Amino acid sequence: MMTDNQHIAYQDILDLAGLRAKVDFIASVHADQPDQRRQALLAALKEANLQGREAARQLLLDDGSGLACAARISWLQDQLITVLHDFALAHVFNGLSTPAAQRIAVTAVGGYGRGTLAPGSDIDLLFVLPSPKAAWSEPAIEFILYALWDLGFKVGHATRTVEQCIALSREDMTIRTAILEARYICGNRPLATDLETRFDRDVIRNTGPEFIAAKLAERDQRHQKAGDTRYLVEPNVKEGKGGLRDLHTLFWIAKYYYRVRDAADLIKLGVLSRQEYSLFEKSDDFLWAVRCHMHFLTGKAEERLSFDIQPQIAESFGYQAHPGLTAVERFMKHYFHVAKNVGDLTRIFCAALEDQQAKELPGLTATLARFRRRTRKIPGSLEFVDDGGRIALASPDVFRRDPVNLIRFFHIADVNGLEFHPAALKQITRSLGFITPSLRDNEEANRLFISMLTSKREPGLILRRMNEAGVLGRFIPDFGRIVSMMQFNMYHHYTVDEHLLRSVDILSRIDKGLDKDIHPLAVELMPHVEDRTALYVAVLIHDIAKGRPEDHSSAGARVARRLCPRFGLSPKQTELVAWLIEEHLTMSMVAQTRDLNDRKTIVDFAERVQSLERLKMLLVLTICDIRAVGPGVWNGWKGQLLRTLYYETELLLSGGFSESPRKERAAHAARRLEDALTDWAPSERAAYVAMHYQPYLLSVALEDQLRHARFIREADCDGRALATMVRTHEFHAITEITVLAPDHPRLLAIIAGACAAAGANIVDAQIFTTADGRALDTILVTREFQVDADELRRAASIGKLIEEVLAGRKRLPEVIASRTKGRRRNKTFTLAPSVTLSNTLSNKFTVVEVECLDRTGLLSEVTAALADLSLDIASAHITTFGEKVIDTFYVTDLVGQKVTNENRQAHVAQHLRTILSGEPDETRGRLPSGITPPQPATRSVARQTKSR
């Protein structure tokens, strides 16, 4: 906000006397050489600026004060501008002979006007012209501006008279805000003082409510644009919710409405307590320190605290790793705590503002009109009143008299659909000390809490207000541990507490029957969930043990067993909640990384779930968890995988899944396909159906089988050995590319490489072989365009590229190199590559799972490596979690058997780890000259010579 600059030793930043002496020497030496004089002046100022900023950076590392750093850079900038101004008047325009009253005033406005400046920030200047003005005034201003630009500064500027400033301030709120912060730098001081006096008298007076309404509306729009949450894991330090701009808004309002120039005056006015003022200063100082470090580190006005600079900023602050949390995660937790403090202070400030505005005369803006509404009683409550649709306190000591009222306050707001009065929230923040172990164990308090959590109204909103007020983290200390905690990865978009609250929001929507178009099965099942309470509790606390050294699912289950009895849940409910938390990742991982057509997958999953009721609840919890991760994480394809897993498991749990008739079911599917080919000749139908093996007939829907039949028939009629077909799935948010080609051990590697070259992200692959030696592979890629026509064109171009690579008309390494040129590999995140081989996950296949950092062409490299290892891929499942991928391949050796030899398993794992950790091999996946189809009888043992 505002800072006292007296304690800052500016002589450590710049030898001002030495700089002035150097400038005077330059003026005397080059008195008759204006060009050389200007160049020498700029060189001296540039050197002083670079040395001064480097000194400010070192001092920031030494003392850690962001406000002091911003004040030092602002002071340095003042001196450079003053030296420029004085040089222009004395040595360029002979302005010193002009009467002082006719000279210009140079003032800083905007953030610079507050006396704080970040290393990369713009310099906002207002040149105030006297009336009358000297003839040299505007040329001198141009001289100063061009010199600043040549020095590399970004300068925003305006040149106006005092009258123009006053007139424009009345019309434009942005200009009014800028002039509110005007600060004299050099030149005609009486002129700058006159502007300040006139602005206070002619603009500010009697316009407080108008200014407040405009600034708060501007803040709300800025928050909405930034996502309306302060818990984004890559926050904008300046513009984001809980950032510096929020503090600036309070500064503007304080200065405008309360007419204060020092933040400490707000204590005297009763707006902030001494403790709150101290928090204000600490928050301001921390945010400035982060911003200055960011600018110094990046060399520009970077305001987004992105993943790639967070570790370095954490190191600059001296954070160290603790068990369960890395250094960067501890730093970011501190950042989000500060952002929350800014929100608390904003609420307290607005409450004080309302008390003042309640005495205003009629004619207030719509934003402030509600201040004058009268209070009324709330039925059934003596402690709280309805103040214009907002719950307020009937007396200031309601929480001291009965601490349960700290929980009851939110419950009554929920039951009566009331918003929250800022003064009440302010009092709650000041009463958090009443939340003691006795309140946490209070039966009534816990009953009220569970009632709010399972409310049919807006439980997510109520819990979020409890969290913002600090009540939720105090009432549930385990929840308090994860408040403001971030996870340093690209997958999670929010802090852990925000993720959990959003999960409750989504569950509430499902419970109300909303979002049926997004997840129809969950909406259908929710009314039949027998224990809503257990499900809501599990959703709220499923990640409550994040940040601990042990697995958060197991640790979370232990926390649940301790918390649930306190909440009033029965032993049966407690065990159900604990089981849901312990298994909350299982359904997602099975659906996305396992072959759902493999019966062993379903059997193993069913054994873990054991009951239909658990299956229903786990499905809903999984959906809430994925959707609350962040925008764009959930898509229809994930929904389809979860539905498939649900339906297959439901059949098994209800006794409808059997392995014995597999042969009969395949024969039935073949007859059904043959019967559906009504426009084909009988002999042609029989020959076509005979081409397909059991896995295809049993796992591909009849509708898709018919499409494939037409596709293959057209390709055969046209004599095309290579062909592609595309279609879009808008609901699933994926696009399907089907490839028909002569079978080849490297086929999937080539297709994956072509997709990578085209920038397509593969999410799944279905791989089938026909009896005549051809492959029918279906690749599913994430959708890029909303309009089907655009997406179909994109998919067709990918299909064409696949055909050209397979035909040998284009070389894959060259295509990938040209498409990925200039892309840098992600060095922000580190993850040790992991490879596991298992023969227990499938009855027929060895399951190879790889986990590593994602990169362009990775799938192509891995599939090519599997071909090098003489392994045949039956199915591939590609899952991306931000920067991390988990790819699963169901493979056999070339005679169709599992890989059982331990030495060979170790060789496969080591080779794949080498591929995952090394740079891409540009020769991998190369075809000699197109693909020659192997003979049908030798397909299973066909091998491609390894090319290097």
Automatic annotation (TrEMBL):
PROSITE patterns: ACT, HD. Uridylyltransferase (UTase) activity is inhibited by glutamine, while glutamine activates uridylyl-removing (UR) activity. Keywords: Hydrolase, Magnesium, Multifunctional enzyme, Nucleotidyltransferase, Repeat, Transferase. It holds the Pfam family NTP_transf_2. Residues 1-379 are annotated as: Uridylyltransferase. Residues 736-818, 847-929 form the ACT domain. Its cofactor is Mg(2+). Modifies, by uridylylation and deuridylylation, the PII regulatory proteins (GlnB and homologs), in response to the nitrogen status of the cell that GlnD senses through the glutamine level. Under low glutamine levels, catalyzes the conversion of the PII proteins and UTP to PII-UMP and PPi, while under higher glutamine levels, GlnD hydrolyzes PII-UMP to PII and UMP (deuridylylation). Thus, controls uridylylation state and activity of the PII proteins, and plays an important role in the regulation of nitrogen metabolism. This is Bifunctional uridylyltransferase/uridylyl-removing enzyme. The gene is glnD.
